[in-house]
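The records we work with from here on pair a chain with its fold. Each token is a code from a learned vocabulary of local backbone shapes. A record is reproduced here so that you can trace the correspondence yourselves:

_____
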Amino acid sequence: MSVPAIYKRKTKSGVELPGVTLEELQAMKRAGQKLQPDESIQATGVRSFVSDEKWLPASDYPELADHFPSVVGRELIEKEVKRTRSIQLYAAGALLVCLLAAFLFWWQPYRDADDARGNLGRVAGELESARKGAADRVAELNAMLAEAMKRQASLEAELAGEKQKAAAATDRLKRTEASARKAKDYGAEASADVAELRSTVIGLRERLSVTEQLPKFWPGAEALRAPADSAQVRVVSMIPNRGYVYVVGTTPYANGNILLLRQSGLFGTRVHVRVLNTYDHGNGEWGHALQSPDMDEASAKKLTSLGYGETLEVSFVSAGR
């Protein structure tokens, strides 16, 4: 025995009403309670599949068509027409979408290819510019390399010259060191010779000093006294050929003074002399070793004209040197 169909209704507000049988729906129709075509109905108990038990408009159930006879013909046709139009619109939209997708699928590779061609041209230009820059850089580097090689050759030549100079300087240094060693050896001998020569020179200087130094009292000086007049001196001794004259007087003169000696008389001899040494004879007397500054034959004759023990007039001429 089959289960009778149960029809559940759902209001527009979503409230689900208790299920009723088809006979009860017919009784409701006779009582004036007709179903609306768009009212949601769910039929259970007579369907083969659970998926068929869905909420559908009442107009989709043929057994309920007598509830709305006015819409079963025209409204159903309009509904199907609207559904057909919707399907057509959906189909046209889907076709447009497909065409648009096909166009985009075609346009995107074309645009990408065009962009790729543009990028390829730009990359080619950049590559050409880079190649040119690299060629210029290579040329510059080659020029720098040639200059560096030239500079290296010049430096090597200078280095060779400096090596030759260093070798020559080394040879000179070796010769100088050898000479220095020889000189050192000679220096030891020369030091002894120099010491000997220095001793000899000192002895000669002493002998020369003794030779040139006039004695404090020459022979006969003890017997000859100084004149009383301070402007007079007395000749004690002389060496005419060397221009030396030794006198005594009462006036002291500093070494280096220039004096004038005069014989008495109109035609007496006059001789300029320099004071070499002054000696204290005691008792207020001073001995003077004098020498003619310009010694020549005429001066020697003047000195020989002076007599031993002779009194001469003396006068100061200058302080001399």
In short: Residues 12 and 39 are 7 Å apart (CA to CA). The longest helix spans residues 74-212.
